[in-house]
Amino acid sequence: MLDLLGSFVGELRDAGIPVSTTEHLDAARALVAIDLMERAVVKAALSTTLVKDETHFAAFELAFEIFFASVTAQAAADQLDGPEHEPGEPSSQRGSEGRGKGGGGGASGEVTQEELAAMLFRALREGDASMLAEGARIAVSRFAGIEPGRPVGGTYYLYRTLRNLDLDALRALLQSAAAGEGALPGSLSQRLALDDASGRIDQLRRAIEDEIRRRLVEDRGASALARSVRRPLPEDLDVMHATRDELTALHRALVPLSRKLAMRLARKRRRGHRGALDLRRTVRQSMSTGGVPINPVFKPPRPAKPEIFVIADVSGSVASFARFTLLLVHAISAQFRKVRSFVFVDALDEATRFFEGAADPADAVARINTEADVVWIDGHSDYGRALTQFHERYANDVTRRTSILLLGDARNNYHASQAWVLDDLRRRARAVYWLNPEPQSYWNSGDSIVAAYAPHCDAVVECRTLRQLERFVGTLA
Amino acid sequence: MTSLRDEVEDPLGLDYARAPRFSSPDEVGAALAANRYLADAAIASVVYLADRLIKPVLIEGPAGTGKTQLGKTVAEALGARLIRLQCYEGIDESKALYEWNYRKQLLRIQAGQHGESGLDWHELEGDIFSDEFLLTRPLLEAIRATDPVVLLIDEVDRVEVETEALLLEVLSEYQVSIPELGTLTATQLPLVFLTSNNTRELSEALKRRCLYLHLNYPDVERERAIVLSRVPGVSSALATRIAEVVRSLRQLDLRKAPSVSETLDWARTLVVLGRSELGDQDVKDTLHVLLKFQSDIDKASKELLGNRA
Ligand SMILES: Nc1ncnc2c1ncn2[C@@H]1O[C@H](COP(=O)(O)OP(=O)(O)OP(=O)(O)O)[C@@H](O)[C@H]1O
Ligand SMILES: [Mg+2]
User: Fold this and answer.
1) Taking the model in full, what pTM does it have?
2) Cα of A355 to nearest chain B Cα, Å
3) Neighbours of A191 (CB within 10 A)
4) Angle at the Cα of A239 (from B217 to A156), degrees rounded to 5?
5) Does the C-beta of B226 come closer than 6 Å to ligand 1?
């Protein structure tokens, strides 16, 4: 079991979850103190000792399912003192009989499609976990068509299985069972019944996922499977190519991330909070103590807080990136003297007003999407036009205290670059930075004109993930 | 690996011969339920492990999900005294750990001057920096207690980062160092719970020392059970309905999802109104107890009640 724990911790670390040696040891001690037959308890023991950040739970859960799903409770208990080999490797799993691999066979042949549907309905309606697992086993045997050794991920098999189960009909049945007689359409009862039914359908989906995962682990071993289905942590996801679900995860990760950043910055500021010794005033003060400098006088701390101007391309391709950056910068706005935001597609609008007085920066970002005036002709990014407009209206507001942050992929749809604007802004500002969410290897290909702007920036930074973003914004304050 | 194995065998520097407080997570669950706190397997397991591994528990999660109540109920279930440190911005050592009673010390010094004059400074110093002049604050009180206690450090995210460091010695060594007195070590190891509302990220050092428990909203069955155990006079059918409505509300994208406290407030309201079932109109009339923003109320009425109410 300790070896299994070792591989599991290794997988967590590979997935980006920081696990210290102390925590590893705590997990080991926890496993010794509990009954390994109880899956929920094992899971709680591992998560409470190893995962200290809510946004890492999803990654933990996936790894746990893989490493501990296939380990039957008995096997786990045996392994506590038994011979050591990596559990979850094919060799240790042959004992579990009656669990046919892929492609039908066994008892599943005898159940008709109708009987299977009835069984799943009953299992879900009555919340019968073992019947549900049995139903999932039959469904996977019959429909998933798992081919041993084939290196496809579980989602492919999940899709094949679900396609063959009429989930909509099942959901409707569950809903009408939950609503009872005479519930009127559009009534509260109907809605509650629908949400209830959907929750149960999710349970079925999970049971099927569990079954598929169990078989894949048998086939390939836990470590190999974990490696192939590992997803980056939210903070390491590529923002530009995130799916809808991933964007939701990103959103949730952003708040703790900005809090972490704010804490780091506050700490940094406090550490350096005394200015240098003010020699002149110290000596003058010492006159009252006969020339002995009893009270050293310090200069006031450096006027450290900068002013930030964000100028963001909010067109389709880079919209999420702009949104996250605006959220992050405004979430830590206390660290800056002032934050002003400007958004553009082919026209530029100041968005600062949306953030002022907004309880939640997310509300402000939502308003930018609907209310900001950023489209002039066609809704394709025109950096040159946006920069010229910025210059006309706001150049005089830019001072030596201002750091300018440009966000975008510099894909200019073959318009003029108007790079002179940046040159002029840089003369006025403390610094000009460009954050580009595209991988550096794509820069200057097609209509990307990074090279036209780069010479006028203090730095052009590739910024594809929240982690990179957080790191960069951290250097500003 | 072998070294890990050895350390597991002999886990703690704190080698107190000590009977465990609970024999299994199930027993924790039952003890909490007997005191009207409904725990799931994860919660019960973490409390059980806190006792077994002698580790503090850091509880995070949305407002009103039972973080504070968990610490309180564990104390009740154990018949232990609850010592609570309510954190706030600006709290410091003198409020959290201990403070010298300057006034009394001063009086003592003055008395020394007037009384029998033989007392020298050394003796006097030893005298005024003794127990008699020490004002004990919650953390020290928990360490020095000889009776069973549960220490609840509530809303720890409100203390400044620097102050957080004060907690570390207590949390990992169960001791407090006082320069004038030396190190005071716990005679019994209290169970320790810390709660946080996530307003600030806590330090890695603190998190490493704690078991971590993220309390989320309960599922329908557990919320129903919470309502039944906390709200006198609620019917079983009503409790089910309440829990279902709240679940559906939490699935909507609201500015503020209803917490367990709000569920309970709502249940109490409905009981006072004499409801034993819940019709569409009842929900519409009382939604404001559950939801705090008008925009949320509008959205919820539209989604849940359709055009009918
Ligand atoms: N599992 C539970 N069993 C019984 N009662 C519960 C449970 N969870 C929450 N409650 C009740 O909900 C209310 C809110 O709980 P509590 O004050 O502990 O929340 P909290 O998480 O500390 O909230 P906050 O973040 O606002 O401090 C209390 O009345 C508590 O009794
Ligand atoms: Mg609380």
Assistant:
1) 0.79
2) 17
3) 21
4) 75
5) yes
